[in-house]
Amino acid sequence: MSFQDLPAPLQAALTGRGYAEPTPVQSAVLQPETAGRDLLVSAQTGSGKTVAYGLALAPELMGDAPRLPPAAAPLALIVAPTRELALQVKAELAWLYAPAGGRIVSCVGGMDPVAERRMLSHGAHIVVGTPGRLRDHLERGNLDPSALRAVVLDEADEMLDLGFQEELEAILEEVPEGRRTLMFSATVPRGIAALAKGYQRDALRIEATSADVSHGDIEHRALLVAPHELERAVVNLLRLEDPRIAMVFCATRAAVARLQGNLSERGFSTVALSGELSQAERNRALQNLRDGRARVCVATDVAARGIDLPDLGLVIHAEMPRDPETLLHRSGRTGRAGRKGISVLLVPHTRRRVGERLVAAAKIKATWGPAPSAEAVRARDAERLVEQALALAAEEPADDDVAVARRLLADPAIAGRGVEGLAAALVRVLRAPLPAPEEIAEIADRAPPRAPREAPSAAAPGGADEGGVWFRMDVGRDGRADPKWLLPFLCRRGHVTRQEIGRIRVLARETQFEVAPYAAQRFAAAARRGEGEDAHIRIIPMQPVKGPARRPRR
Ligand code: AMP
């Protein structure tokens, strides 16, 4: 199916936008057998689903006419879970239906309801809104449902997750029998199936979620990081990849506020998106990202839903998502509209198993590795600085600049250092605005052994027959070396889990303990650095520490 069979004004809009070929979900909903039928479509954001239902509605909106009739009572209603998504849908349908003379009105929570009522009273072809606000307008008689020929539920699963079932049912009860109902949903859990059964007639099921289609342009990485170094890893990733726009996900509003504050302090231009912002603040944040005033958006899951920023090149999951669907939704903010994107899952090494399960359940292929080191960032900086300086030097210089350059070269202070000194000064100026990279402890890229459940002192770590590497620390019975304090301290200090610590001998003035062979190098490196109030406690290996041995098989 191509765009050629569509009404001329729609074709003109698509051509104007540079969209030559339909995406798979667009092709699917435009097949002849879908005409006039209810549809239940699995499609993710980024798949082109908005244009897909926009095009699918053309027969209901335009019939055989060359243009839309004058705007009166709305012909189609689109319900979306969040304000952002609703406004994005409105923007997308606005250009699609502009040549056909379309008038689209939005009704969303957080916006002025009186202005919306006024817009509705002037007539509309399509109304787009969030569930609560649409129900309000229906109940108050501002929104006349009598002429509706089609209803679209966009991100239906998300609307149920957000607790909008009652609003959706109230809306669906109001619209005339015989209308077309299109449901779009990333997943089809039981609640969605029930909604479809109750409110659709003989719906055609369309699957357009093939991993290749929606995630083909996303490179997934999973990086093992010490739990207290997540933020440093975020800093180095942002610096290394240097995307035009990056989105960093946290689990809570408090974490968003904290991370945004810390990133800003380091010199990143950031905005935050979380539920506590007013609509105006959210719009401003998104606008700052679009026009380049901000480059990093720190967000919670709900706040970032449906956001479409084509320049977004990097997604960082600073806190692991709670389920595979969230992992996919978050990752889907990048790699949009045919562009490439990178999605990085930061996995605290103590939760590696959880991370592995998450990646497997999301059916994505991720490359595992360590977080980028400060050295890697500096090396990339060097390349970029050279490129930047060469590009500057290639430009035709302005006369004023040449005059200053001549004065500089003639100055005895500069003449002594020569061109190298001048070039180094230029590099310093170019480097100045870049946030400093962070030193990060090396984490061995090894799976931990399956946890032995015995008490730590009962067996050697990493396998009963296999000896661990012994370390010594200068706190003994005379200090506070009791097991209650010891184990958590060692895990914290050495970035290991309890299972990776083996036998412990508390002596009078020192404590000796064993670390699983595969974790010994990591432990030694982390323990050497020491942080916080216990940093003065010295920990040294009692035998040579070799590279990570093979993980024991059980
Ligand atoms: P959506 O899945 O609706 O969020 O759309 C994702 C992005 O793809 C939006 O920026 C659309 O404008 C864009 N898009 C939609 N249809 C096409 C197409 N046929 N070709 C290229 N890009 C498209």
From TrEMBL:
Residues 30-206 form the Helicase ATP-binding domain. Residues 454-463 have a biased composition (Low complexity). The keyword Hydrolase applies. Residues 229-393 form the Helicase C-terminal domain. PANTHER family: ATP-DEPENDENT RNA HELICASE DBPA, ATP-DEPENDENT RNA HELICASE RHLE-RELATED. Pfam families: DbpA (PF03880), DEAD (PF00270), Helicase_C (PF00271). Signal peptide: none annotated. It comes from Neoroseomonas oryzicola. One of its GO terms (molecular function) is nucleic acid binding. The keyword ATP-binding applies. Keywords: ATP-binding, Helicase, Hydrolase, Nucleotide-binding. This is DEAD/DEAH box helicase. Transmembrane segments: none annotated. GO terms for cellular component: cytosol. InterPro entries: DbpA/CsdA_RNA-bd_dom, DEAD/DEAH_box_helicase_dom, DEAD/DEAH_RhlB, DEAD_box_RNA_helicase, Helicase_ATP-bd, Helicase_C-like, P-loop_NTPase, RNA-helicase_DEAD-box_CS. It comes from the Bacteria. Residues 446-466 are annotated as: Disordered. CDD domains: DEADc, RRM_DbpA, SF2_C_DEAD. Belongs to the DEAD box helicase family.
